[in-house]
Amino acid sequence: MAIIEVNNLVKRYGDHTAVNGVSFAVEQGEIFGILGPNGAGKTTTVECIEGLRSPDGGSISVGGIDPRSDSRELRELLGVQLQESELPDKMRVDEAMELYSSFYRNPADWRELIGILNLTDKLSTQFRRLSGGQKQRLSIALALLGNPKVAVLDELTTGLDPQARRDAWDLIEGIRDRGVTIVLVTHFMEEAERLCDRLALVDSGQIVAVDTPAGLVAKVDDRQRIRFRPSAPIDHALLTALPEVASVERAGSQLVVTGTGNLLLAVTTVLARNQVVAGDLRVEQTSLDDAFVALTGRKIDA
Ligand SMILES: Nc1ncnc2c1ncn2[C@@H]1O[C@H](COP(=O)(O)OP(=O)(O)OP(=O)(O)O)[C@@H](O)[C@H]1O
């Protein structure tokens, strides 16, 4: 069952159309990713879902509610991550949790949330003294305070170090396991691939594709890549002559052969026939990164 439905959403800033006819549905209980490069219209789309911006066209339903016409009901249903600048520097963690709890009819037990988010020993710490990862965790705690059915997390892990990012991923999976539907805005491929049940790829205000990470990769092609270090020089023409091979490139001392079908068997047979041994051989499947490039014609700069 869809908990969020976005139909033909249009949002303009002056004569710039930031979101241009976007439609998708988020199913209850999933982690739904919105992935795209800077300026693609991701934040504008979720701000319309959050009722923070008025669409110029199309319709949005969150649990049957129109975000613009019923903001009070929406607040009980939808948890929104605060931006860093929205918390006073000198406010302590426990003060922030108390204050924001008072905004909800049926707030969650904030001490339990703080425990889950591993911030119990920071209760009397001022916001400005928290690390980047701790600030992010606090913003997630605040987003979950109202026991929302849906949490919108925008660029949650930007600016975090790799370990803090992985911790945040575990946390998000834990929240989903508690039954919360999550809309995750990101421009990190690895994050999208690891976390999202389904993904909308967005580029220049439009949806390019919506599918599971594996489905997006399969949409593009079944191309494979083989990397190896040849034990002796091999004439590239011997490999490019194979019907399975699309290209052969040199990368330092390695050869990278791209192709389809039973590429591995075809390539290793030619190598063996020419007394060449393939050292450090690796077979790489198409990644979400490759899929994005194939579908949009450009790379996401992450
Ligand atoms: N308040 C605003 N006024 C004018 N233009 C805006 C405003 N907010 C966003 N834009 C423009 O609309 C486009 C989409 O911006 P948006 O922030 O939605 O993209 P995004 O995909 O979230 O990118 P980012 O990852 O950089 O946040 C961009 O070209 C941006 O410059």
Automatic annotation (TrEMBL):
Record localization: Cell membrane
InterPro entries: AAA+_ATPase (IPR003593), ABC_transporter-like_ATP-bd (IPR003439), ABC_transporter-like_CS (IPR017871), ABC_transporter_ATP-binding (IPR050763), P-loop_NTPase (IPR027417)
GO CC annotations, alphabetized: plasma membrane
Primary localisation category: membrane
Gene3D superfamilies according to UniProt: P-loop containing nucleotide triphosphate hydrolases
Boundaries of every ABC transporter domain copy: 4-229
Molecular function (Gene Ontology), one example: ATP hydrolysis activity
Protein keywords: Antibiotic resistance, ATP-binding, Cell membrane, Membrane, Nucleotide-binding, Translocase, Transport
Membrane topology of the entry: Peripheral membrane protein
Coiled-coil blocks: none
Single biological process term from Gene Ontology: response to antibiotic
PANTHER family: ABC TRANSPORTER ATP-BINDING PROTEIN
Name by which UniProt lists this protein: ABC-2 type transport system ATP-binding protein
Protein species of origin: Actinophytocola oryzae
